[in-house]
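EI: anyone free to look at a 393-residue chain?
SC: sure, send it
EI:
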Amino acid sequence: MSQETYDVLVVGGGPSGATAAHDLARAGKRVAMLDRAGRIKPCGGAIPPRAIRDFAIPDHLIKAKINNAQIVSPKRRRVDMPVENGGYVGMVDRCEFDEWLRERAAGAGAEWIRGTSHDLERDPDGTAVITYEPKGGEGLQRIRAKMVIVANGARSDLAMQAIPGQGHPKCVFAYHEIVKVPESGFDGQRCDVIYDGRTSPDFYAWIFPHGDTASIGTGSAQKGFSLRGATAMVREENGLAHVETIRREGAPIPMKPLKKWDNGRDVVLAGDSAGVVAPASGEGIYYAMLGGRLAAEAVQMALATNDAAALKSARKRFMKDHGKVFMILGIMQFFWYRNDWVRERFVKMCMDKDVQRLTWESYMNKELVRKDPLAHVKIFFKDMAHLLGLARA
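SC: here you go
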């Protein structure tokens, strides 16, 4: 049984874990990346231009470039929200994208270990040990590490062991089907976002193009709601019921960052394990990768200073830059996703050009737009008018 001690063990090889492993390996740390092979998270696959820039995503991974979002209301009102000035949202296939991220981490020097994590233990000297079952079933193995980054999903038992008492993050359960798109009659540069209580009572359904395939799915936190049935409805109503289904996937998507991301000693959470998926939109790839990078930087600081308090910087920095956006999106989800009456008014509000412009600018650059305060004031009063039913839907 090997007693080799890594500088850092990253548990999870999705966008967050693979980014952390890549950054740490490039920084010269001895890194192990433990990943359960074969798991693909249901995801629309959208990545904004800032993610492409910040994380050097090559163009060959971009399966489609979306220049318009069509918002669909319960009454089938369709509102186009075109991206201005030639901008676009990149769409990736998570099956290919995640594997490329893991290969990039391994290429940078991270040791890629395929297996399923089990427990956090301690050696007599206090060093963290993660037990895991290797792919192929060779019995439990052990990995020792000075620091551990847990990035293995929203329902991570390992995260709960490392930081007990706060439970799992609040989640929406998502389900999607990857389908082969028709050769004609399908707009591969438009994503559809469907706000309709029949297809999601508290979230939304979607059709997101991926080149010659598309992700069709929905999400809900309501127990007993049929995600498969709702997805079948979306397919039927959009002429996609009989196209080939390539694969089906489902998983919880966290909707609120956890209050604590580190154990004050040698473990820090990242990605879904920390709850960093945007409320209302469910966008997670950019925030996962950023969380992985911040966790990696926090771990490097803790190793360099021998001060575990540095681990707190991951959450502190993330919330400083994005906490206000998450709060606003959470309020938006609470008010606008409650029933079809308010959903209809929400979609009507999306026709407003100020709403469209500020929405795209904030999404593309991942920061609140402050340069046009008058537009924000106008939107506030329009928002209140629709919420109170004073504006016609």
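EI: The first strand starts at residue 5 and ends at 11.
SC: 👍
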